[in-house]
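Run log, item B.
One chain of 376 residues. Sequence copied directly from the ordering sheet:
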Amino acid sequence: MLYFDHSATTPIDTKVLALMQEIANAHFGNPSSIHKYGQKARAVIEKSRRQIADALSVKSRNIIFTGGGSEANNMVLQNLLYSDKKHVITSAIEHPAILNVLKHLKNFGVSYTTIPVDKYGLVDPANIESAIRDDTALISIMYANNEVGTIQPIAEIAKIAYKNKILFHSDAVQIPGKIPLNISKMDIDLMSFSAHKFYGPKGVGFLYIRDGIKLHPMIIGGGQEKKLRAGTENTPGIAGLGLAMEMAGKNLFKAQEHLKILENHFKSRLEKIYPEVIYNGHPDFRLPGLVSVTTPSVTSDLMLVNLDMKGIAISSGSACSSGTVKPSDVLSAMHVSNQNNISTLRISFGKGNTLEEVDKLIDTLDEILKKYKRKR
């Protein structure tokens, strides 16, 4: 089966998987134990922390391991429960791990302002600055959108937050391995990541916490992760995360070029067979290899079923809302009509895809589109 849904999740890299198996077999000790088994497991965890810190140009002490990007986001947002100020500024196209958490936190006195986006899915920093109130405690804007790939002006927004003495957080799970990321050059306070988005294992991620930022634990118990996340660490998963992050940084420019080649080839061929095609997202400020494409008059559910029957995996909108035939909230926020909304596919290429596979995808799309054109 051909896989073109890397924004939902990536397959584990073979080197990462081999390391995880090795660690699971050889370093099974509890990292909190004093004996040598525990010491070896602890060394594995700290090596991973250094790998991540080096990839982001930060200090090891700034990295806290979590169960993934959603947990990292929750850790940041639920910290508002301990704050005197309880207002958050976010955008209309954030992941449910932000927007649904904020809806839940309204029950505990947290309020939030949702900033609109333009037709490209881009936030205007001026709107964020205008939304600041006396009780604003946090600005949370995702680095790049998982459905359309639009990259937000994070550095500019971070400066606004810093100037107004407001914490700035960004969900950056889509970034590693796709665009350069040097946190030390921006006024970033908190940033969330998830290993399975860059060829690491599921169920493990991390939160970057700037020096001087104090958070309260969401999971209470032992003293792991500077008392911010209780529970015995997932040593093999953390080892895999560290290696995946290191490789994402080292192979960045090669991966970028590969994704751009695949994307350009896909678009060039698709436009010839289906001139009515519409691309969503910003034409310039966008992730390489992620294509949000509307095929007017042919709904995405029909496309997905037919593609799956042909052995091709893609998605429509966000994977987190798959299985439901309803307009994407992200595309609605970008002022896409309901008909075009439910006729949109998300194709996200990965490092393992080839031009031959892209040709197979295009040929299959051509076959399906022609079939439904004849029916109309």
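Observations after the first pass:
- The chain has 13 helices and twelve strands.
- The first helix runs from residue 14 to 26.
Flagged for discussion on Thursday.
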